[in-house]
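Ticket #4471: structure output looks truncated?

Reporter: J.K.
Steps to reproduce: submitted the chain below (186 residues) through the standard prediction queue, then opened the result file.
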Amino acid sequence: MELNAIYTFEKEHMSKSIDALKRDFQTLRSGKVNISILDNIHVDYYGTPTPLNQVASVMASDAVTITISPWEKKILKDIERAIAEANIGVNPGNDGESVKLYFPPMTVEQRQDSAKHAKAMGEKARVAIRNIRKEANDKIKKLEKDKVLSEDMVKKGEGEVQKITDDFIKTVDELVKQKEAELLKV
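Returned output as attached by the reporter:
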């Protein structure tokens, strides 16, 4: 009974690591623009730092352009300033109605750099998963120490923990491989 709770704990936390990796991947720039590159940008809205998507509609007009249409025209300059300060690699253009961000096609070096970042994000996820494995194994050892589990049950439990860990590491490796292929594809 206690082992199943440990397995459930391990799977839930490792799934969260996978979700975090996927969110991290969205911040990487690939060949076509993704509006999530603006997720961390906050605009000064009546003295309150407010997420950009709460003061304007944000959409990808085409593969290289993001259009930001504020609900109040008077905050155009604030949006422009927030984007410039965020340093996302583009200069905002203001046409009086909306702010447009033009992302020039990525160079080979930029693609390779993004692929390196994807690998680093994957390694961070692997480390998180290994830490969860250690925590699960520590819980099993504690149950053994408290005489709740026999030595055979401990071996079986640690084997199952390792199997779950291997499955999640394999998922991370596949996600990194897919992201690298996407980033390096011209």
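Triage note (M.O.): checked the attachment and the full token line is present. The chain is about 60% helix and 15% strand.
Status: closed, working as intended.
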